[in-house]
# Entry
Amino acid sequence: MEIVTIDDWVKRLSAIPKAEFSIPRVFEFTQQFPVKPETLAPYLFYAKSHYTRNLIFKSELFEVLAICWEVGQVSRVHNHRGQNCWMTAPIGRLRVQNFHVETRDSLHGTCKLVPTDSYEMDPTHPGVVEPEEPVHQVQNLAEFGQRATSLHIYSYPYSTCEVYLLEKGAYSDVPLSYSSEYGKLSPDEKLM
# Structure
């Protein structure tokens, strides 16, 4: 294991040939090269009202985001539109809850989800979204008692995802946006 700066991490990740940019290969990369947390400082924007999505790097093959979580913040239950996703948590720890889509009616936008396995991420335990069961939720549980930042590698970059409302048994498409890009806060982002 070699701890590297975020710039070096992105450079090494970019050096993986497209033909080798597979789930096992990139997951092995995240295990071998943890990121020095202090090098993420230019990309860290926390908001009390919501987690933030901060773009660090984007190419045709993949993008890297730092997602900043205050204590108790959770993502909506969602998928990644069939794209691969790897995650690591250089700051704090996070829980990932996976779900199985038991039924789905695309005509009416309804579905039934069943929680399956879950795992925790921290600086030495990265995670990966399994293509066979891609619906999940990321949680910075109140009991963890600290802010967290996760790094997400998405291949390929995507601009919408499906969000699932467990209590309503429904799902819909949701557009995605960045809270910041390359260390600059987006004009419409409110850090409250």
Summary: The longest strand covers residues 94-105. The chain has one domain: 6-177.
